[in-house]
Amino acid sequence: MRSLGLEELERAVLDDTVPLAQALRRCLILGEYAHHQELRQWAQRELTGYGPDDDLPAYRTVPAALAVNINRYSIGGIVQFNGHRISHQQLPDAARNAGIGERMPVHEGVRTLEEMVARSQGPIYASPPGAAEYALIMSQQQADLGGPGTEITSLHWEVATPIIEGVLDQIRTRLAQFVAEMRAQMPAGQQNPNPAQVDKAAKQAFDIKTGSNSPVTINANTASAARGGTANANTNEPAPAPPQPWFHRANVLVAAAGVLVALLTAFITWYVAK
Question: Which of 3, 22, 170, 178 is an S-S bond match for 59, by CB 3.0 to 4.6 Å?
Fold first, then answer.
């Protein structure tokens, strides 16, 4: 049977000097072999980038500072303020309604991200969608506030380079977990993982719910409380038994009283007979 490159994938994942794209291509081959659509799709998107309508993994939404570049005009000329930090509360309503804030989605493929990190000599800058329009709105807002000589020339995110490095590290770590999960399932002497082993490893490493698009049900404990109260639930402990209705407790008390009467009657009879 031909080798599927599991050893090559393992070496590429564990060697930080090997480009991440090479490891992802090996992962893509395994996904093709196993007919695992979700795994192929994940590897392909990490290689080529995510589209604007794609759901991003949680590790691809990162903290980022909002900043603007400002030109202020006066008799003496133009004074520029570049990289002036702002709060998301200072954004136009349209920008906030579009979900723009102090977290930035990272859509680029791994090669692009690696080049951005390699060339960076400070923060990495990115423009939100619609940034030019929002800059015009903010300039008009400044004029409405009595500052006609103030122009917002750009709106952008500033992201520390180590944060982008962290995204790349998250991808490599998930690939390492993927390999480890397959190795844990393969008995000694097995050269290639079978499709079932690939599917199980992908679910564990990439949080892929299922390879067959079948529904997955998760059972968890729940808790409730009266209005104004508090409630807690622990998924690691069994759920408490539901409270019994009042009539059930009354029946138990009546039965217990009956037993006591019977025992007392027996004792009195025995004592008199004695």
Answer: 170
